[in-house]
Amino acid sequence: MNFNLADLRAFVAVAELSSFRAAAGELHLSQPALSRRIEKLEDALGVRLFDRTTRSVEMTAVGREFSRKARELLNGLEESLLGIRDVATRITGEVTVACVPSAVRYFLPAVLRQYHALYPRIVVRLIDEGANDVLNLVVRNEADFGLNYIGTQEPDVDFQPVLKEPFVVACPPDHPLARKRKVTWAELGEYDYMTVGKASGNRMLLDLALGNIPARPQWYCEVRHVTTLVGLVEAGLGIAAVPRLAMPPGEHPALTSVPLVDPVVERTVGLIRKRGRSLSPAAQQLYDMLLSANAAIDPASQPARAGKASKPSGSAGGGRKTSSRPGQQAS
Q: In terms of CB atoms within 10 Å, which end of the chain has fewer, N or C?
């Protein structure tokens, strides 16, 4: 038959994304070039694989059956090649991973280093976005899989838990709270408090967990991302409640963290993937490496507290609130 592996890859891409435009982008082809490959495959098979209109692309009954066999063929070939050491270093491809920024530093560096050593010509695209965006990227097949803390209730998503992490208070080492072994949420209200906005998945978790607490801290500064929040704490602008993984690992000269209690609020971070969609062998290999590597690590050992706290200096980030500060009543 007059078709090749590139034609099969083009067909599988269109079948998975239900879009010639999206498939062309993923394969780095022009849409006319992609269409020619599909037409070539259809001519060789003597059947129509897609019903196309100006608004939609749907597989025919034959196309749906053939897509399963085409995936099996391509995955079987790629899996065989990945298992041959001398060949694996020459395999090209692309894996796309969506990940919440606060989990990037903990989960990815060591595994990506090992993966790149094994498959140096496979490109890894890392999309660091907020939790809702990460979830949508996976559901829309724009990412092979994701690292996220939401998705357990989504019917179209498989969520594989990796670890639970608590929220901690981030503050400068010379802050009064830095001397404590634990801090209650009520105590945060005595200081300049900052938070993420309501569009953040972390804010949603905190609002649900703290809904019945009468003495919730009132924020004076709101940002979009947890990483920005940590940066503002480091600059001495106040304190913030953040997931433990968002804190820098090891000792830090300008940051420390203390466990938050009454109540303890945790989030579960895990790997998410589209339910019913098989990962390519290259993506599956990275997924398995992340799962096995991080399951063996204790997150409590990563973001260590800073050294011994010094006496409070009375800076803007460390001092107690005063009634003269503008914007304190924002909520």
A: C
- By the 8 A CB rule, do 78 and 282 touch? yes
Alpha helices (runs of H) in 46-118, residue ranges in sequence order: 61-82, 85-88, 101-107, 109-118
Average pLDDT over the chain, rounded to an integer = 83
pLDDT in tens, 65-76: 888 888 878 777
Find the angle CA(37)-CA(40)-CA(41) to the nearest 5 degrees: 90
Q: Taking 90 as the threshold, does the pLDDT of residue 266 lie above it?
A: yes
Superfamily of domain 165-268: Periplasmic binding protein-like II (3.40.190.10)
Residue pLDDT, tens place only, 75-96: 777 777 777 666 666 677 889 9
229 exposure class (CB count in 10 Å sphere: 0-12, 13-18, 19+) = buried
Instruction: Decide which of 3.30.450.40, 3.30.460.80, 3.50.50.60, 1.10.10.10 is the CATH code for 1-82.
Output: 1.10.10.10
